[in-house]
Amino acid sequence: MKLFEGKLGWSLLLLLALLFPFVAGNDYHLTVMSTAYIFALATVGLNLITGYTGQFNLAHAGFMAVGAYTVGILTVDHSVPFWVAFALSGVVAAVLGFFIGIVSLRLKGHYFSIFTLCVGYIMYLVIEKWENLTHGTVGIIGIPAPSPIGPLEFESPRSLYYLVLFFLVVGMWAMHRIVHSLLGRTFEAIRNSEELAESLGINLMRNKVLAFMLSVFYAGMAGGLYAGFVRFLGPGVAAVEHTFDMTMYMLVGGIGTLLGPLLGSLIMPWLTQYLQFLQEYRFVVFGPILILLVIFVPHGIVGTWLQWRARHAARRTPAATPPPPKPVAAQEGSHA
């Protein structure tokens, strides 16, 4: 029954996503939602290394930029077909993540986060300064839209919306398989206690590097989608602010859950959009709202719901009480 409820909930979300273009007021709403889907895909990847493995990677936006610039450089400067460049976006990010991971993951806790923060800033500087490769501050202009696949073309906002939604659905399905597999349990064991996990025979470095590579692979793929959707890239794609945005999405939705980062990635962009009428003062309202959420809902929307459901189930299912012991006289009589 629990599995059925899960399938029913995911099916409802997918149905709402499929129907959204028919109720959206204009193409701008489609653009906002498509961008939210792209960052949701990257946030789901960040949640794998942070929420499930316990390593807070502050260079995640840099890896997203690596995927985006892989598509931009290959398509614009070398005339590589879009889908070939897109397929390489996640691979390039994962390969780079392997080399950075084997160095950074030797550190633990805040030291790892500080190291990756520096790595992310280095990525930003490389994109900004290496003009021969990345076009520097001018950026990459004229990135082609995704090539048609048979009769399917991706020129209109609606077609791009469904394309991004397709990759988000595939990414969520793959992440569901990962976190509910033995590999996912291994990541959670590392998060809960590295010493205990190692005593159980888990290879810490190998599994943490694998989690890191899978995480940045999602970021690279999201960056490749972003390049094909926006069709213009600048160094700001690698800014650490995007990593903090994705962290906020995880915290609001529920870090360490599968649905939480997705909900946070969809709720927060729309909240900021509806506060735009306040212009520069919108953060005066947005900031306290976020603080209240963190204080009163510290486990996020999904995490709080799961905790409430677990407590409710515990109250409805009383613990089994052992039968009362026999009186001493009765025990003696039985021996007699």
UniProtKB/TrEMBL annotation:
Domain of life, per the record?
Bacteria
**Record region (Disordered):** 316-336
Its annotated compartments are: Cell membrane
The UniProt transmembrane annotation reads: 35-53, 58-76, 82-103, 110-127, 160-179, 209-229, 249-271, 283-308
Q: Does the keyword Membrane apply?
A: yes
Q: Which PANTHER family match?
A: HIGH-AFFINITY BRANCHED-CHAIN AMINO ACID TRANSPORT PROTEIN BRAE, HIGH-AFFINITY BRANCHED-CHAIN AMINO ACID TRANSPORT SYSTEM PERMEASE
Q: What is this protein called?
A: Branched-chain amino acid ABC transporter permease
Which organism encodes this protein? Caldimonas mangrovi
